[in-house]
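Check these lines:
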Amino acid sequence: TDVLLTMLEHGGVGRLPRALKDAGAVEVSFETRRQPGILSVIAVTSPENVEGVEGLLRKELDFVARHPIPEQEVTFAKRLLHGSYVLDNETYSGQASSLGYYAAIDRWEFAADYLARVDAVTAEQVQQVARKYLNPEHTVAVILKPRTVPPVPPPKSGTE
């Protein structure tokens, strides 16, 4: 899942930011836990672009789920994950955070094995995860729009 998320969004170089170009910003997340989790795609755009952005996102996610993922894209995502993991764990505090996080959801050794696990991921495994989590039959779109706030009436004067 980490490799897939990195391919989709990482640092503005992923598939989804490229698909949106200037139409909006996007963030992809998946909370690792003991039971299956939720993969979230959050896009921010102007009200007039909502339908277009949703269409672009659905099209790209469907493409990823249905087509083979190029090996060079998986390799690039793995390199990005390596870099961010090493930076996150270069301090004792970062290492303790990783160990504690993985101890809470699985076992602390997962933190020590993380990079080897990332290296072992294949394009086919990423494809399987994409099919599982990017299934259009299991998606929900939530659109939040700013509410229109009525103008504040001027204060009443004391002469009325």
In short: Residues 9 and 73 are 12 Å apart (CA to CA). The longest strand covers residues 25-30.
